[in-house]
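INFO worker-7 received task bundle
INFO bundle size: 2
INFO processing item 0
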Amino acid sequence: MVDTVVVASAPGETSTSMLAGVSWPAIVAGAIVACALTLVLLAFGTGLGLTMVSPWSGSGVSATTFKITTGLYLVVIAMLSSSIGGYIAGRLRSSWADVERDEVYFRDTAHGFIAWALATVLGATALALPATSLIGGTAVGASQGVVNGAQTSGPMDVYVDTLLRPDSNAAATATPAPAATNASDSRGEMVRLFTRSFRNGVEFKGPDRDYAARVVAARTGMNQADADKRVDAVVTQIKADTDAARKATASLAFWVTAAMLLGAFCASLAATEGGGLRDGTWKMRR
């Protein structure tokens, strides 16, 4: 024998048991509430994050602590906003009279899940800028290793500046740079050379590396052995920064995935609670 739940409609309320089982106004309301709460919590988290970091040595939290805290806060935002949005979607949905208990439970769960999905789509467009502002600090410093060859002045210029910095201990007279006597031309050539190599994932060695070392020796007044060491050090730094940026991006992706999955679960669960309270069957479900 199948259990049914008969819900009495409020005065002036029309039963929708014969209509579509999706209450879109309730879903949209829940999604908007979830997006609004997410924006508020992001703004609060931005202020909280700014109080945690400091340019002074020993005054702020470490980079690892900041990354973990940011990830946990993303999870908290998703759980809290999704729960309230799902509850609103379940509590405001239409009455389903003469509908089986299992069907009501499924519809409430679906309402919460759809509200979460709609809030996620809206958040991906309307809340993209605040979210980027909050979580962008996770990869501060490490993101300098990401190469963007389309920019005129990009992150690679920082490494070329380090590469061509004059050596105070070197001789004052330097030999002309090979195939590039103009300082501006040689610097631009070095930027393009490094950008192409690391953007395409090509190992920086062979003729390109030898040429870079000769340009460094000519521009800085260093001997060839020291120029070779500087080129190797800069190449190693570029790889380290790029790898750090890759790891930070992967870590952030895992945190966002966990937050989204927990948000979907919380929204679905909260919608069933809201629907039960709306129909007066919450104690029966418990």
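INFO item 0 finished
INFO processing item 1
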Amino acid sequence: MPSVVNPYFGELAVAIDAAAQRKGYRVLVCNTQRQPERELAFAQELVAYGVRGVLAASVLHNVDAMRTLIRRGAAFVLFETLGADPGVERVDVVAMNNALATEKAVDCLVGLGHEAIAYITATPLTPHRVARLQGYRDALRRHRLGEGGVITEEDIPSHSSTRNDADLAHFGHAAAAHILNMPARPSAVIAMNDLIALGMISAFREQGVRIPDEIPIVGIDDIRISSFTFPALTTVRQPYLQIAESAIDCVCARIEDTTRCNPTQH
């Protein structure tokens, strides 16, 4: 996974571990920091050590390497799609409908009377980030509200990002300051995830902006800490318990399938 510093991935890891133990398996957790070389090294080393199943919560950049590991007997389950027909067989994908998540967030705010709704997103480098951005745009068009306003890391020169999950709350803090300086301030904001939303809440409160009275914020993921902020964050729940159960069911089915290729001994 990218990093357990993002509470969503930490909660997902705990749920995966519990689901795996119920089936008699053990889980090793590797933090890739979204670095392709770390991702590849972890996958190769784990399979070499005899790990039989790999669950990838970050995007797998090296599809050829994954094909090689599958031929060696590894079972893969992904939490991100690989794009249009990458030609990889025997791989399962378990994920929520990310576009629908932002569509529901827009619908909620439109139902409350908001028309100027901004979307705050880290650089859309991954499929789920792209899907959430697309869902926001599709929902605005459906409500005939135009293209909306998207703020990314590139729009905030003062924010120096390493594209690491640890920076997401800092990005949200910087994005809130950016919004306060806009000549036409949005009436509501949707954040790509809860970490960004929590950073925004902190910055708005520092500037005396009342939430949700002056500007409501909607996040995505429903990490546990989001209900303990003041005010509690409105957020779209990602069903991580069901995702974990489904992922473990898939990887165990692949591992226990006697028709799969036999792993090559190294």
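INFO item 1 finished
INFO post-check item 1: Residues 7-95+241-256 form a domain with the Rossmann fold fold (CATH 3.40.50.2300).
INFO post-check item 1: The helical segments are 7-22, 36-48, 63-71, 98-111, 127-142, 168-180, 194-206, 240-256.
INFO worker-7 idle
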